[in-house]
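Researcher: I'd like a candidate sequence for this fold, 235 residues long. If you have to choose between options at a position, lean toward the conservative one.
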């Protein structure tokens, strides 16, 4: 009996050790320098290979899947957050309103799925669109990316890609993003490793705008509804 317990303990510790080696804290928080598939496809190798295969299939239907955002570092996400916070503050939003406005679409630095090299925002590169391309209207109705969205709805899962922020009305957290896809075979285990982190000390820093208002209650709800408020296909 004791021998079985020792073996079980060793096996458990081995799994934990492997997990730490595979996904260290720096990788999970976007503070590492991952090796990309290439410059135009800023994704880790396995995810990039799957994307290329999907891209080739879509081209057969006249759709050019183009990445407009792939890997995003912790510092880059912090720049985005701080810029939005300052703009919202200038527009008269209270600190609490400001935080809620930003997290409609943008993440706190250190909590973005884009940190993992598994997630992408895409458009159809064959279409010329001025201004902000990542708008819901561009993917629905008479929008320029409707054909892309419909093709992805049917085919993306064949290549391991799923939309984390779908339009399920029961889903909480970030708003619907028809342009955002995650490579599930890697994103799922990374999420499982990520949620074990005590990330408060990593993200609540004095150079982050509004850090004073990121209390424990806010962060607990943010984790529950935003970090975990995703499609069941990615859990």
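Model: Candidate sequence:
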């Amino acid at each position: 009996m004791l021998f079985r317990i020792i073996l079980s303990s060793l096996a458990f510790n081995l799994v934990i050790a492997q997990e730490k080696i595979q996904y260290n804290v720096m990788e999970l928080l976007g503070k590492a320098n991952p090796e990309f598939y290439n410059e135009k496809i800023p994704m880790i190798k396995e995810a990039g290979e799957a994307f290329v295969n999907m891209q080739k299939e879509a081209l057969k239907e006249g759709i050019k899947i183009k990445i407009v955002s792939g890997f995003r570092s912790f510092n880059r996400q912090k720049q985005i957050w701080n810029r939005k916070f300052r703009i919202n503050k200038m527009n008269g939003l209270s600190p609490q309103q400001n935080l809620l406005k930003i997290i409609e679409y943008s993440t706190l630095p250190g909590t973005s799925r884009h940190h993992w090299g598994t997630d992408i925002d895409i458009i159809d590169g064959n279409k010329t669109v001025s201004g902000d391309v990542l708008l819901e209207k561009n993917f629905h109705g008479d929008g320029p990316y409707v054909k892309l969205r419909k093709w992805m709805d049917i085919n993306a899962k064949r290549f391991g890609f799923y939309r984390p922020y779908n339009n399920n009305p029961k889903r909480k957290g970030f708003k619907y993003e028809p342009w955002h896809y995650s490579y599930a075979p890697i994103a799922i285990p990374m999420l499982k490793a990520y949620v074990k982190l005590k990330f408060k000390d990593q993200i609540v820093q004095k150079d982050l705008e509004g850090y004073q208002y990121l209390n424990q209650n806010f962060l607990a709800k943010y984790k529950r509804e935003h970090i975990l408020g995703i499609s069941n296909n990615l859990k």
